[in-house]
Amino acid sequence: MLFNSIDFALFLPIVFLFYWFVFNKSIKGQNIFIVIASYVFYAWWDWRFLSLIFFSTAVDYFIGLKLSKTANEKNRRFLLLTSILVNLGLLGYFKYTNFFLENFIQAFTLFGGKLGYSSLEIILPVGISFYTFQTLSYTIDIFKRELEPTKHFISFMAFVCFFPQLVAGPIERAKKLLPQFESKRVFNHGKAVDGLKQVLWGLFKKMVIADNCALYVDEFFANYDVYSGSTLLLGAFFFTIQIYCDFSGYSDIAIGVSRLFGFNLSKNFAFPYFSRNISEFWRRWHISLTTWFKDYFYIPLGGSRGSKMMQLRNTFLIFIVIGFWHGAAWKFIVYGFINALHFVPLILIGKKREKRPYSNSLFPSMVDTIGILKTFAFLVLVRVFFRAKDLQVAWGYLSRIFSESLFNIPEFSNRVGAALLVGIIVFFTIIEWSGKNKEYAIETLGGEWKRSYRWTFYYGLVFCIFYFYAKPQQFIYFQF
Q: In this structure, what are the phi and psi dihedrals at residue 109, rounded to the nearest 5 degrees?
């Protein structure tokens, strides 16, 4: 079930009414209803994979209980290893089986061998990369004695399958979210209104900007060999905007919907395209994933400690793994590798990674402006590897950009539509910059306006959502 669908527009108010007016007598009753609603939400895509979610939930729940009762370190490590193997085994089978088989066959043929092979018909379950990491962090935290396991199976089920963030995050830690399922929720009107505002902004980003960018992006990447370099550069720019508005739009909707039910999810994006260097970008982009890898992969490897060679090794490993997490393809590995390359100078010269807050001034300083533009330009080009069908298309697309036709006037079948989309992106950027120090861009926007002006702005966003509504597009990160 998509957030930007009629189905969800009907599903959400029904769940909301039952949650607050029928199952509000007890915490357990609300949690049971959340589990039922979440399983219905997921079953709308494919009911067969509900058993996979339940299995993963049950394994980590019982391993968590066993870990808390086991003092022997060898047995505790065995239990943790079991959790890791089960979770990553399932993820590896559904997501990476064909990748490894295909590359094994290709490597085998280099030595003159021949193997008959056809790809296995494996369907990738939506959201498996997200809920797998969420349950896995639960057992790891218990193993590290940083978390006490819950004894309430229903609460843990609700934590794993909570429908707003089930299929594309944020990837929540049990330390933050699980206690919210075990405490009483009281409806808060202000919190609900704030949630609706964030949902509105998320829908605007997804349906007005991301989905309309997709119309051009899909055309340019599918036929890159016939377009000029200037057109393809604009296509890469549109994709850079599309993926941010698509994914951060999903996160905004997830966080906003959660507030309607009395839950607080983690911030997943902190205006990453205003980053002044690549290090800052990765602190602001998909925060729940990058912090997951930092805490459970990068730091155990040694993190930023040790020699420069160790730091380089750890940096390249984490970015290659992050790239591979996104998909079973070499293009994602190359994408991660190129990002890691940008950290090499920082590590070699021992430069500390700044964490300066943004200025409250209307315009950024010249130094910040140059840093933002340089970082964004890099992202526009490296995102080509992310979007292209494969490495061959990525190299072909980039080579066409850096050709003589880069200086031609961009070609569009609908110049007016493209110009209007650029205008909307400029408007969107101004709003985002004005709210860059908030949880989301329009959190406090219009707070001092007259009521009529404020509602005119909100209704204007609603109008844009319906007026610019393009062909419905699935959220990009559903494929991961």
A: -70, -20
